[in-house]
């Protein structure tokens, strides 16, 4: 029997285990996939390599060798050339979203986001007094023409649109990938209105099939007016609070001259130097390969369970990457009522309404990264039973 | 001969060593005072204690045991009772200043700060579009009556004062300690105008004499309308990017519910759990005792050198704590001209004008935490020669 208070110590981790409930709600990694020994080795290697410099104020933009390696990764992802002059180490995506909101927008401004979109990211904008206006999409991602209409509406209403926030690749919560055509059209629209885009790239490296995602918005835009945020939270460990920003060299220079970075130096210096060792040695590449294999097996187990147990009318697509399966509910089935029924059956999930899908569409988000395949099959079975409880009830 | 590129590897640390120059400008810790082995031991102990939980999303406010220990430290500092409900772990003071600016103020607002005050901190406010208005003080710290006049002036001019930013204890750049009487009077003024105070407490633990500083503004205000930021950057290591915020329980609850913390969890979880081990074991207490001894010796070496070598008219007070000696220049001596002369003599320092002292007063800031005592004596001798070059020239 798993000692859950050992795995999720109360007062230490964000996740709180509820006895008897398999919670496929949060987008967490299974603790068994978190490489504790590698991190210790990384810190040892960093200490041997750099000595006390690991504890000094780090250079503002982050360790140059790490920025260079990440630029190389970005070049391989996108098939275009990136250099360290395009990369800044961050204290994680949330930290940099919080910072950028203050740089790009003022209270009362509008930010355009997908319907649905990452709830806590949009919450960071709302905490800063921004109004999040939603743009719908479909299986090919956000609809750029709908985006254009929204911009026009907002401008006619006399409101300032500050920026666009998108997750084009392995979207949270839907798992969708925006098509190359849509990406190009979106950039046309954003360019015409001179609107900056924040491209949340957190799941880019969690590729679970052979299909390669299209080049990023950043790359397709030739880095103009796109700020991309990538993360070590999904491919390595969220407790690190480490990520990176990619943008044009001018944006990077402005960050280098920001008082936030001058005052504290690199936003997470010690951890950046530790992770540098894991990237430099090739360990991270191997880890990501293994992680993809483990996550693909989990995704497949969940999808097989859902196919077997969900009643007719509950629809989902198998995502090609990321952490999530988005299940669309039949008309008249309420996500909160379904969760109540599900928790009585011993399973829980994230309410689709938290991510604000277009009005009138119900959905739930299931995460396959937190649990073992057999647990996910059991979760799907319990969820299927709950769906039938509700539809029958 | 010290291999300086090994100590300050280019592209890794913020500090760039210039051959032939002893730079007493930046407020850095001497690399020989940065405890690399202890940090490695701390991570090992954290991994043994918590396993993969060190790499999961951390609980929003930071590890409860660390918050409890820091509340205990705060209670000892102030002689009043603090609990974990008053403490939030931060990603360093700069990160939280950046965040709080967005919470407390909007572009165009005024922030009141000391003349002089921490330049990059004020720069973070300016980067967010705030106007920093200065309030003068003297050896007893900021003048609360001058503060009251400034608030009145700003309000009459139709401007919103968003908050007050102060460093009452071992001030940067002056090293001064605001007297208890001034603290109480300041709280009266701030209370009358309902103005929140950010109390920068970074140097509180760097006590170099027997005199205990007065209780913090946070404590004297019984936690009403004061948010205090403390740091591990001065007493342990700046590359950690770890600090803590202390405030009333309501402010802490609001942070717990902020999307920044919900999205990413604890702002620096892995490092917080590592440092927890060092605090819990008592290691940090011993380290701070040793660090104070080392820094007092450096302060004394610098002060002795200055007394011996500075020509008449150059005045300084020996600070009771912190990292800095603030040297006031005779009328007509320009800080930038003095630095040019000093660099020709092989020493550099921070320009007083960067910290914006009241108009017409010239000063320079010397830091004694970065160099060995003998190096500081040599720096003082070179500085004295430069002063004479300039006064004679």
Give the oligomer, counting copies of the same chain as homo and different chains as hetero. homodimer
Q: What order do the strands of the largest sheet of chain A run in, or round the barrel if closed? A: 2-9-8-7-6-3-4-5
Q: What's the total helix number of chain A?
A: 14
Largest interface summary: A-B, 80 and 79 residues
Q: What share of residues are in beta strands of chain A?
A: 5-15%
Biggest β-sheet of chain A: count, sense, barrel? 8 strands, mixed
The rounded distance between the terminal residues' Cα atoms of chain A is 34 Å
Average pLDDT number of chain A: 97
Question: What does this protein look like?
Answer:
The structure is a homodimer of 393-residue chains. By secondary structure, chain A is an alpha/beta fold. In chain A, 43% of the residues lie in helices and 15% in strands. Chain A has helices at 4-7, 36-50, 64-78, 93-104, 119-127, 144-156, 180-192, 217-220, 249-256, 259-264, 269-280, 283-309, 335-344, 373-392; strands at residues 22-23, 87-90, 110-115, 131-138, 141-142, 161-166, 197-200, 226-231, 243-246, 315-316, 324-328, 347-348, 350-351, 363-367. In chain A, strands 2-9-8-7-6-3-4-5 form an eight-stranded mixed sheet, sandwiched between helices. Chain A has a four-stranded antiparallel sheet with strand order 10-11-14-13, with helices on one face. In chain A, helix 7 links the parallel strand 6 and strand 7 (197-200). The first copy, chain A, is globular and about 60 Å long. The first copy, chain A, starts with a helix and ends with a helix. The mean pLDDT of chain A is 97. The interface between A and B is large, with 80 and 79 residues.
């Amino acid at each position: 029997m798993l000692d859950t208070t050992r795995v999720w110590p109360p007062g230490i981790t964000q996740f709180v285990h509820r006895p008897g409930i398999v919670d496929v709600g949060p987008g967490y990694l299974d603790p068994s996939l978190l490489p504790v020994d590698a991190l210790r080795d990384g810190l040892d290697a960093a200490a041997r390599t750099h000595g006390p410099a690991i504890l000094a104020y780090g250079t503002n933009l982050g360790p140059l060798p790490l920025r260079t390696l990440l630029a190389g990764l970005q070049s391989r992802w996108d098939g275009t050339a990136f250099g360290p002059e395009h990369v800044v180490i961050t204290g994680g995506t949330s930290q940099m979203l919080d910072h950028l909101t203050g740089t790009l927008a003022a209270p009362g401004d509008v930010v355009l986001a997908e319907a649905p979109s990452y709830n806590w990211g949009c919450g960071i904008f709302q905490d800063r007094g921004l109004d999040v206006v939603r743009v719908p999409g479909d299986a090919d991602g956000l609809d750029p023409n709908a985006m254009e209409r929204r911009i026009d509406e907002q401008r006619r209403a006399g409101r300032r649109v500050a920026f666009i926030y998108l997750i084009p690749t392995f979207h949270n919560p839907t798992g969708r990938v925006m098509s190359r055509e849509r990406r190009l059209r979106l950039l046309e629209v954003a360019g015409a209105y001179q609107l900056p885009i924040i491209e949340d790239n957190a799941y880019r490296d969690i590729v679970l099939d052979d299909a390669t995602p299209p080049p990023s918005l950043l790359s397709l835009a030739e880095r103009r007016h796109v700020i991309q945020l990538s993360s070590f939270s999904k491919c390595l460990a969220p407790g690190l609070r480490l990520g990176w920003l990619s943008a044009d060299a001018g944006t990077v220079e402005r960050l280098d001259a920001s008082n936030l970075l001058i005052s504290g130096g690199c936003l997470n210096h010690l951890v950046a130097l530790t992770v540098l060792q894991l990237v430099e040695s090739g360990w991270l590449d191997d880890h990501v390969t293994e992680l993809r294999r483990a996550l693909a097996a989990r995704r497949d187990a969940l999808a097989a369970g859902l196919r077997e147990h969900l009643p007719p009318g509950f629809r989902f697509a198998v995502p090609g990457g990321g952490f999530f399966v988005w299940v669309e509910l039949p008309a008249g089935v309420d996500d909160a009522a379904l969760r109540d029924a599900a928790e009585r059956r011993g399973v829980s999930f994230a309410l689709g309404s938290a991510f604000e899908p277009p009005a009138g569409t119900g959905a739930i988000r299931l995460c396959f990264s937190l649990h073992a395949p057999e647990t996910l099959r059991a979760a799907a079975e319990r969820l299927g039973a709950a769906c039938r409880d509700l539809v029958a009830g």
